[in-house]
Amino acid sequence: MKILSLLPIFGSGVTALLISVLPAGAQTTRPQDDPAYLKKAALKIDQHIASFYKKQGLSVPEVTDDATFLRRAFLVSIGRIPSAEEALAFLEIEDPDKREQLISYLLASPGYSSHMTNWAFDLLRVRDRVEGKPIDFEPYRNWVRTAIDNDMPWNEMTHQLLASAGDGWDPETAAVGYYTADRGMPLDNVANSMRVFLGSRMECAQCHDDPFGNQTERLDFYELAAFTNGQEPLRRDYMQELYDELNKGKEYATRKFSIAQLMYNKVYGLSLGGGGTGNIHLPEDYQYRGAMPGELVGARTPFGRQVRVSEKRPRDDARKMLAEWVTAKTGDQFSVVIANRMWRRVMGKGIYEPVDSYIPTEDSHYPELVTLVSNLMVEMGYDLRAFQHVLLLTRTFQFATNPNPSVVAGGDDFHGRKIERLSAEQIWDSLITLSDGDPDRKPRRGFDDRIKIDGKPVLVGQKTMTQLSKEVLALKSKKEVTEYYNHLVSLIEEGNPGDGNAGGNAMMSMMSGGELYDKDAMVRASELPSPAPPDHFLSTFGQSNREIVDADTREPNIGQVLSLMNGFVQDKLVNNPNAHLYQSLKDAKTDQDKIRRLYITILSRPPSQEEMGWMMDEVKTRGENGYHNIVAALVMSSEFLFLQ
Amino acid sequence: MNPFNRADELTRRQFMSNAARTYLGVHLFPMLGGSIASAAPAKEIAAKARAKHVIYLYMDGGMSHVDTFDPKPKNKAIMGKTEAIPTNVDGIMVGHYLPNTAKVMDKLCVINSMNSTQGAHEQGSYVMHTSYNLLNTIQHPSLGAWVQRLGGPLHPDLPPFVAINTAGKRVGGGFFGAKFAAAPVGDPNQGLKDSKLAKEVGQDDFSRRLALADKMNRQFHNRYPNADVKAYEELYRDAINLMNSKDLKAFDLSQESEQTRKLYGSGRFAQGCLLARRLVQNDVRFVEVALGGWDTHYDNFAGVEGRCKEFDQAYAALITDLAACGKLQDTLVVVATEFGRTPELNAEHNNGRDHHPAAFSCVLAGGGVKGGMTHGLTDAGANKVKEGLVSVQDLNTTIGYALGLPYDLVLYSPSKRPFKMAGADKNQGKPVTELFS
Hints:
Radius of gyration of chain B: 23 Å
Oligomer: heterodimer
Shape of chain B: globular
Protein name (chain B): DUF1501 domain-containing protein
Strand order of the largest sheet of chain A: 1-2
Distance between the termini of chain B: 61 Å
Strand content of chain A: under 5%
Helix content of chain A: 40-55%
Number of strands of chain B: 17
CATH architecture of the largest domain in chain B: 3-Layer(aba) Sandwich
Shape of chain A: globular
Largest sheet of chain A: 2 strands, antiparallel
Radius of gyration of chain A: 27 Å
CATH class of the largest domain in chain B: Alpha Beta
Organism (chain B): Luteolibacter pohnpeiensis
InterPro entries (chain A): DUF1549, DUF1553
Number of domains of chain B: 2
Largest interface: A-B, 76 and 82 residues
Pfam family, one (chain B): DUF1501
Largest sheet of chain B: 9 strands, mixed
Structural class of chain B: alpha/beta
InterPro entries (chain B): Alkaline_phosphatase_core_sf (IPR017850), DUF1501 (IPR010869), TAT_signal (IPR006311)
């Protein structure tokens, strides 16, 4: 592979990619490790699209210009606009392979996993806290983030989530957060699993049969839910009596009670006991065909290769059976759904839409294309980074923008890129790139496993939540639990008599390195609290509340416009002389240079002659203020807010 | 010659609206026109209508009807820890978590016979907010957008539809477009964020920015005529009118006395209720305030107690306060939720209650609605509606009726599909007229 050695960002990027796609210790070569394989796969996709055009008698759309490609490639693959340096490096070099090299550079950037993390958090509803649950979901968040960081294959990730059991703080088993975040609502959890992983919408069957009689019935739904049944905390029974006593007694609302809550809620409450029984009682109001209200039924899968459990012989691994069924026994459904989700992410529109309602391949508009991408997904071992790499290398990805709607209902007709407002996270990540420089150079959010009592860290440097959880969950009787509790109380009280200030500056003592970032930090959206609070910029621009699958919205509202004109954007960027953007103007010699630099930095393109005229007038009339006015105007422009 | 060179001669107000007129959006026709005030409702509806405003309090997650507005004191098995307490109206009881609400029952009309066909959160709250089932092919406008579209704004500058502490997806303009979406308020204490000029920016520079941005946008627009791109340009114009409004202080809770603020309580919902009162006093049409956390699958009683603590104080304060300032007459206050909770308790989930769309409760007050009454009945187990069933579409139509809006007027989406505030033909709502005095 030719490397643009003049440009360190390109050279190092390509090298880093080659390293990053090889998981530690893996000796076998995978097809995607060969760049020629990726290109060939991209070509095959393009050939399919070309034959579609031929059949329809349509001409193939133009390929877009470099500047549009640059911005699109950055926003789609790493979720932010390029810095001025990155933009110039790409625009000013003449090399026929530079688009390919840019894609390699981007996929090797830490920005890739940051941007994918937002996707995963929206899809899996990853929140730091869940309303009504006094539990910290930090370890689960960290598990998902780490899985994305390490390119855990999607089938493995799905399997680990669905089959999870055990200690919520142990990094090996922290995927249990997928279930414990939904504890008490196992039916919603199953409905979401089917939607997320298999593109099957079953939430209606939670309450009633399909009135049209051709889809899932309520009994099917319960039989599916039976696989995941039995989601009590691990061994919390041993603590129940002690906890109830403290809850009623005079210790209630004291620091000692907080320590009991730490064990009861944050340790036991996050854990998941058992591996799924495989049977379930129908609800008392059940009144449909085939079963009686309250009847005990065994688990049974509704389609694909059937897996079932007898209601009379409950098991302890039914969640694993479900995980295996979802990932390996549903025909092409599992691979098609994830391939189409990735297609939508890269191309802006799914091969069929909506992406979470699976269409049997033979019924879709482009069965051959669906089969091709589904096979590709399988062949590359569900490596989402490599799969997106292929898509980003296609000519289809490079098609010029076309604002006209697709002629194919419920899918793409590949007539060009649609115009779409950036996601809340893309806008945020782009703005902080302008105000604070390349955000991918900052350390990622660390894993906060400090023990906290009433919000304050204790036993810092002595014990972590991970250790505490391991010890607590190993206790084997009521007596042991009581002894441990008393021991923990004295340990904490000795270490931190009074108000627990000893843990004050705890950032230094975090186990796993990294930083803690609060809601005001100028870092990637993926590193901020999840979701950001309701008055945060991200929320105003439509970030998902992560209570519902993919609840993000790009709908405009007046709050967004106010924020651009007067609020956050003004404070942090436009009127902030220390913003990175203005710092980067220092070495520019002339006014024209500066204007050009601002255009490149904000819109990733040089100004047209006409625009240069407008902006020069501005600077002549308003001097230094003129630059602020230009920045404000460019950031407020639709060109900044929309992906072309 | 730039008209802004004469800026000093103009008052701030004239100046700003000039900026809007000259540069932003006015050269574009609004996507679907403004309100359709010409579409007059049937005379008998309009004549009876007393309400001008709606305050829509949304209990997000599914409020348990058994533990709040539909207790069954004789049926101990389903009541669990909840006790029924008397109210200031003979014969009407509420759960013991609502002592303050009990004292304003004479002003409330409790509908105990709500029924929905949607039992999952997303679908349930969608139909409550739009009268239509969730589809993947179209976004339906939410209630506030319908009210704005059918009734028009009452105030020239303030946003007609404001949503406090609410998920953005619930309060969108749908196919009406962004102009009809709610102006979002995250934290009521901060009011409408960023509605004042940044302090470093003079008026001259501000309008120069708008002028430059407008030049950029025209360019972009010519290249890509797109509804969302247009929407942003219109929003800039609305935002400038708003910034300039003399009534912007409607959003400022610090203008309220400490005593009043305490009356409502301190949470986001509570202060949101107070803000809602200020907004309707300033001619905002529709205010939605959400209170989350009602999804009490696990330990229902602790959950309901926690939610009711904030709700009860704030709701009773709002009703009392509106009545005292004379606004209860023309403000319809709605308490709504996507479904109720199962009367039977789920012991495995520490006495949790699951989703129950078959029967639940909503409450109306003000805006011409009779007080001190209940409508409809559930059976002894609070399981099914026995009398006076009110569908989700019926409730929404009743809101339209209270406002005197043509709720059955057909409007077309840009894709030429017909829609009504009352919902689709086959389950079109009918107003429950007997609730009105």
